[in-house]
Amino acid sequence: MFNYEFMQNAFFVAICISLLCPCIGIFMVLRRSSMIGDTMSHASLAGITLGLLLNTNPIMGAFIFTAICGALIEFLRKYFSHHLDLILTIILSLSIGTAITLISSGKLKANANVFFFGSILTVTTADMISIFLLTVLSIITLYVLYNQLLYIAYDEEAARVAGVKVDIINYVFAILMAAAVSISIKIVGVLVLSAMIALPVASALQLERGFKQTLLYSMGFSLLSMVIGLTGSYYLNVAPGGFVSLTSVGILLVVLVAKQMQHKLRQHTPNLHH
Predict the structure, then answer these.
(1) pLDDT for res 256
(2) DSSP character for 2?
(3) What is the pTM of this model?
(4) Transmembrane residues, as ranges (predicted)?
(5) What pLDDT does 250 receive?
(6) Which of 80, 85, 88, 192 has CA atoms 20 to 30 A from the CA of 125?
(7) What is the Cα–Cα distance from 31 to 69, expressed in whole angstroms?
């Protein structure tokens, strides 16, 4: 399997996805805004189509358009502060409308369908460079803003009172979300991309550890689902996006069952001593 260059490229991208997506996802889950990931993934499709229309790198097109949509979500919060679902509907309408209009126009210089489900065959050297740069810059930014992001995630109003520049950091975080989404498109695909942002975090949260440990476990679960998903998609000859998503759900179910079994064992253990 690893004799093929396209599989080497795919696993390189998988490692980047496994590092970045949980880093973004854990803050989104804590802020109860994980559905933003789904909206951003659909927004990326419009960016891809724009990139293909302009004959530029679709990954960078997805990043730029998704970053704009992320910033627009933060801007609209001022007008619909208690209606996040309405904001997401507005962004979805803009993104899907743009994508469908461009795809149906027949003016795209390449086929956009491959981005719906992901493909291990389409990762180019240019994509790898773009993805690597976005990953490194995003992780550095997350490291620098770690304390402020954590503060905002737990209590945004208290963070404002404490002098944290919440609005600016929210805009920066929107750009980081765009980076996480755009690096994942080629492998995972638009339709199931949000699974890689939320499901590894959901699995890690069941372990009930501290924040940093939860983040590390999220990365571990993310990497595991990517490795199993890519390997399975190669041998079964199916789209990697769907199989990675199913693997992520499977890992979550295993964690939930293991947690339930551990809980029952603890309940019966005292009885054994009697």
Answers:
(1) 92
(2) T
(3) 0.80
(4) 6-30, 50-73, 79-103, 115-146, 171-202, 214-236, 242-258
(5) 93
(6) 192
(7) 18
Closest of 170, 225, 228 to residue 198, by C-alpha? 225
Looking at the domain assignment, is residue 182 inside a domain?
Answer: yes
Question: In which residue ranges of the chain is pLDDT below 50?
Answer: 274
Nearby residues of 200 by Cβ (< 8 Å), 6 or more positions away: 21, 22, 25, 218, 219, 221, 222, 225, 248, 251
Give the number of residues written for the chain: 274
Residues of the domain holding 160: 5-193
Cα 120 from Cα 115, distance rounded (Å): 11
The answer to whether position 84 is within a domain reads: yes
Q: Is residue 220 part of a domain?
A: no
Alpha helices (runs of H) in the chain, residue ranges in sequence order: 5-30, 35-53, 58-76, 84-105, 114-117, 125-144, 146-154, 156-161, 166-188, 193-205, 211-236, 240-273
Q: How far apart are CA 261 and CA 131, in angstroms?
A: 40
Q: Which two tokens stand for residue 23?
A: 């880093």
* The two structure tokens encoding residue 49: 């189509």
pLDDT of residue 1: 67
Residue 44: which CATH number?
A: 1.10.3470.10
Query: What per-residue string of b and e applies to 140-150 under the rule 16 or more CB within 10 Å gives b?
Result: ebbeebeebbe
Domain count, the chain: 1
**Residue 15 in contact with residue 220, Cβ under 8 Å?**
no
**DSSP letters spanning 79-105:** TSTT-HHHHHHHHHHHHHHHHHHHHHH
Classify the C-alpha dihedral 142-118-4-197 as positive or negative. positive
Q: What is the DSSP letter of 1?
A: -
